[in-house]
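Q: Could you write out the predicted structure for this multi-component system? I'm mainly interested in how the pieces pack against one another.
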Amino acid sequence: MLKAAGRFVLVLALTYLGLLAVTFFIGRVIPVDPVLAIVGDRAPEHVVARVREELGLNKPLYEQFGIYIQKVAHGDFGTSVLTANPVLQDIARTFPATLELATLGILIGVLAGVPLGVWAAVRRGGLVDQVVRVMGLIGYSVPIFWLGLMALVLFYARLGWVSGPGRIDVVYQYTLQPVTGLLLVDAALGGEWEAFRNALSHLILPASLLGYFSLAYISRMTRSFMLNELSQEYVVAARAKGLSETRIIWRHALRNAMVPLVTVIALSYAGLLEGSVLTETVFAWPGLGLYLTNSLQNADMNAVLGATIVVGSVFIGLNLLSDLLYQLLDPRTRAR
Amino acid sequence: MNHDFLTLSRRAVHVAIGALLCVGTALTPALAATPKDTLVLAFAFDDIITMDPAEAFEISTGEVMGNAYDRLVRFDVKDPSKLYGDVAKSWTVSADGKTFAFEIKPGLKFASGNPLTAEDVAFSLQRAVLLDKTPAFILTQFGLNKTNVRDVVKATGPLTLTLETDKAYATTFVLNCLTANVASVVDKKLLLSKEQGGDMGYAWLKTNFAGSGPLKLREWRANEILTLERNDQYYGDKSKLVRVIYRHVKESATQRLLLEKGDIDIARNLSPQDLTALASNADIKTTSTPKGTLFYFSMNMKNPNLAKPEVREAIKYLVDYAAIGDTLMKNIGVVHQNFLPIGLLGASTVNPYKLDVDKAKGLLAKAGLANGFKVTMDVRTVQPVQGIAEAVQQTAKRAGIEIEILPGDGKQTLTKYRARTHDMYIGQWGADYWDPHTNADTFVRNPDNADDAKSKPLTWRNAWAIPDLTKKADAAVLERDPAKRRALYDAMQAEFRRTSPFVMLFQQTEVAAYRSNVDGLKLGPTSDSTYLFGVSKR
């Protein structure tokens, strides 16, 4: 047991190191001068040279990387040059915005996508199956950017059902006490139900949009896993035994289909947690995707590396979680 | 096969629909409106990297500085050639033109409550020179440097201050430089209390505030929100608004929806298409001002073809200025073929070039390139720049010049341009401070064209060696007679139009759209002269 844990920690450390190394070296070879983001286009040459030295950019690459790793090991992720804040502080600000959006998005995706997929599989070729197919097709082919704008025009501008871009109305900007950075949680903790309602009405549209895109994928995958299960002998046996169709489908077939489905859902969720740059742009959502992209375009490497660690951790964490869920769902994988 | 499995999902669907309806009704937002005492703007401010006036040099930061920091003098937004005292009550220039004496208005206070004295003004200028960040050159160009600044900028009494320059510059030049953000007055006492390791409060001020302007900075959250509040300590007319909130909204279409819906009062970054679409909306008005920003493309003379004067002239005839002006630049720019934007002293309004393919062909033949040639152009993938580049590509082709567009993002193309490894580059240039020398310094001065030159202005980036023009530009900044100074700039612009490797295209017009209940909004000619403290809401 101890040995397994030790091996796990080692693998984890190597994964992070590899991730950082790749990101670091890609960041250094992209043809953008990181000094430019700090001093701007107008800086006199001596200022440019001084900042280059301050950043340590005149040192060899491996040495720069070594310094960075050393600092990270001491918990110092450096300062973002774009926001003038410590990277950790920036991440503590942008990641909750993305987390809130992605979590609601994946909930919508799973709660609607799995039943739809099951339904489509059971009534193969039927109306629901066709609808799921078309939804999947649209989900794959329509740019999220365009769909987001259309959704805003319809539900926000025309119908007025939801609030517009941004996380919350400006009137609540300074009334809400930040605790977790998740506005819904903070509002609930503070008992600010007006603010909660407002934050939710801002969140619901972009979350539905992300939900729709994961729904399109999840329902297709559910359908194919279910078709596979429904053709298995144990289903025939169950029917012969006279079990109700509801029980066969929801208890037996879906339960077996859930094993691969968990991976699909976990990966979808991880994808959403990376932050969807286009959705965040259209909805003026100050999330991790926008932070990462903006930092990358300006070669703000401390920020890029910090955000990469977060994204990496999300993937590792969700992988672990789905491994645990396997054991829960599939008795064969449980350690004896 | 029976279908009672559906009973479960049918029930689930009913429950889900019911829940959705409930949530929908509960969420329907109250009629959107911003509070009466708060002005809300949508503004793409991802360029901001600091809130320290000694370092800030970005467009969006300029606007904050203009509203939140006072300086010795400001220019009149209605007539930028006129200056008026801001914290300075009066000033005199010595007979030899090298000593400026300022008297500070009495009884001024910073937002912190600390008194504002000549000592603070001297500290502010010294600090900017000593920190030596990007905009420091605006002050060092008239002789201030790290070793002498404590002697040449001096408080001579609680409310009097002198500044000595190394040469007798045009008085307007020195005063114009003092209107820049880098000359903002900062709170010495407050900054020294926040000092870390002798940094004069540099680390702290990046995200904080130490000014005395009509509005004070409450918070800057990068790429999210920036809030200014009324400074009740301000000496002049207090801001009518209690609060000004900038929301970072990058996308033009999103800004438009927010404005139409009334969730913001002012939209600052609308595309020409969105502006056109808003024109028919009775609740929304627009205002516009010519800015100090020029659109141009340039030709690197390290490329042997582009080094030929006939080729450069031919290319100036291969741009359909009028057509681009009517489409891509509609409402957001006017044709302008000079390096001084209109509004600056001496700016020329002569625009001699128009699309003339035959003339261009003749010039190319004269250069021995009758069959044209191939060349690349580095282009940022943003509008309107990308569209302009494509239009130029089309018209140049008619004379046989094949322009290959190399797309990149801003920092990428700029990195290449700064290393002068491009053929052609399309971009923008904005005035750094409100004096003609700012543009003359980069468009007609090139003190050293060597690869390892100390100073690398735009002329250097395009390898345009011009010792004569450099001398003329240096003379113009020392000319103390405004009429003569104007004539010098006029002559430089004429020569520049003919021979330079720069194809000047448009002067930017900034447009803002606002709700009709907003009064008193005027965009300034520079980024730091859009004043929101005079704005009110009905």
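A: Regarding packing and overall arrangement: Chain A has a mean pLDDT of 88.
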